[in-house]
Amino acid sequence: MQLCLLLCLALLSPQGASLHHRHFWTKKRARELPATATAAVATATATTAATATPAHRNFTFDLFRALVAASPGQNVFFSPLSVAMPLAMVSLGARARTKAQILEGLGLHARGAPEEEAALHRGFQRRLQGLRRPRGDLQLSLGSALFVRPAVRVRDAVLSALRTLYLADAVPTCFEDPAVAQRQINAYVAQRTEGRIVDLAKDLDSSEVLVLVSYIFFRAKWETRFDPQSTRQQAFHVVPQTTVQVPMMRREGEFDYLLDRSLSCRVVRLPYHGNATALFILPGEGRMKKAEAGLDQHTLARWLRKLTKRRLQLSLPKFSIEGSYQLEKVLPTLGIRDLFTSRANLAGFTNHSDIQVSQMVHRAVAEVDEAGTQAAAATGVVVAFRSARVGAQTMVFDRPFLLAIVSAEGVLFLGKVVRPAGGPAPSPAPAP
Predict the structure, then answer these.
(1) Is 1.10.3470.10 the CATH number for 228-318+373-419?
(2) Greater confidence, 353 or 310?
(3) CB 276 within 8 A of CB 406
(4) Which of 69, 204, 307, 399 can bridge 256 by disulfide, Cβ–Cβ 3.0-4.6 Å?
(5) Which of 379, 366, 404, 367 is nearest to 248 (CA)?
(6) What are the sequence ranges of the domains in the chain?
(7) CATH of domain 2-220+321-366
(8) Buried b (16+ CB within 10 A) or exposed e, 347-358
């Protein structure tokens, strides 16, 4: 019997960004049945969204580097919270080495005490409660649901913990009719993500026994929007010899800014309404690998503490980005190995034995535009910058950069933008 874990879709939509969910599925063959901000952000980031106790490793940034290594020269975008939370939920029913590997991967020490594990789950509980609080113009919600075949019994202790710690609903589902089950799951997800995620569950069959859907939805507006009239087409250098044309947003004003000489990068902060913020990190030419290697929770917290006001002429692509990952191929590099093999021990999850996770898929999508909304903005011909005012420094994101979206609950999204808009085939730069 297999637990098919599909972490699907964190969607970050154009209000500057908006985010979705992911889900994981438990599968069993039918014949095997019966049965405010900156200070708060800095504090949360220092512990990260995935850990609640001091850790010898950091899941968020270890996973980021693993995804970058697995996707050379490509966009990378994911929600650490959307990956870490289902792993923590699975750990509730894991036993022995399988549990130890999951918890260690999430940041606990190999021989962590039970109180450390309890602190991990309580940390997620606090984040969920925080994410559900009203935030004015910022919409941020997170939740989970278990769609369960009635013949399969999730153990009472696990079900209680999922409900209490992870606010997960339990929904009886008739998987004997896959089409009905699929419509039920997709309707649930669409309703809670305001229609941003549709047709999440696909290709269900009558052997499915449990689907755990987790969603996270984030939509916010920039505190200071970009003027769509200033957006112009401009070349973005995917690599020095390869460019794509992108709509480049432009704004001059006071920004929180930092030059990090140790990592050879510049950082600019764009706050959203509602105590969330985006950090855009522009490495120096040829310094991307150095910035990637140095990115961790301490670096992020240091940036947030040391940002200072600077007048900038900022040019930032209006872009969309998507990441899709088979995490069962990536997480073993972080030490989470047995979960995806016949050695998996998930005896505490259900009243069935011999369960393993066959696959774990994560997808994340983001769109960033002038207002933080999906309003279309016409773009025109390429126009050169006007002369900057005296004292204004020009900062143009016209080559690959890093992106982190954080709130007081920690890192919500992390990405590497290599090709904004992700779509059109690159065109060679003209010969010098």
Answers:
(1) no
(2) 310
(3) yes
(4) 307
(5) 379
(6) 2-220+321-366, 228-318+373-419
(7) 3.30.497.10
(8) bbbbebeebbbb
